[in-house]
Amino acid sequence: MGVFLTCREQWTIQYHHLGLSFNLKPFSFKHTGLFPEQAANWDWFSSIIKKANRPVKILNLFAYTGGATCAAAKAGAHVTHVDASKGMVGWAKENAKLSGLPETSVRWIVDDCQKFVEREIRRGNHYDAIIMDPPSYGRGPKGEIWKIETSIYPFIQLCEKLLSDNPLFFLVNSYTTGLQPAVLTYMLSTAVKANHGGHVIADEVGLPVSGNGLVLPCGASGRWER
After folding, report:
1. Which of 60, 97, 183, 188 has its CA 20 to 30 A from that of 222?
2. pTM for the whole structure
3. Which of 81, 82, 56, 68 has its CA nearest to residue 167?
4. Contact call for residues 181 and 192 (beta carbons, < 8 A)
């Protein structure tokens, strides 16, 4: 006789440190709509935003369900949230509302990230910080292939053109084994630090295992900070 377990269709969790709330939903591809290891990055850039003591514009690319968007907006930034999936942007809006964010704090964009960045460059728009959480593989609306190993560095170079004259930070996340922290360091150093100064640090991100004190690896993050 088999035993079958059922899971609720949706539930809500809180990240009390920043006053955020998120709707989670189980998916067949093993995602629940949130990557909790990113809380370390949320804390990091929230502190930078608060210390800036000025209006801060942030571009969040491949923004998924809006964890970083909500954290940045909660810290006082105005965020442009871009994702190619209409469903994911809708989910992110739910999280923003659940977290008590004003509607004016986020601009929601359903679009291919590269196409959007290219248009923003032509428009002459600029941002004080950029966050990107690119997929390992994807296809654009016209069948364009995104493969992170070959696409990410040219895209970082392209996005650097959107940074303001006094930028605050540039964050790149990777869940691909080929993009180790050292590689993220090299890319941000040559594409961003070379033009804006500051410093770069990259490291693995993970989830602490309370039972044995170890950390479950969950990818890597590269941070440039002015």
Report:
1. 97
2. 0.91
3. 56
4. no
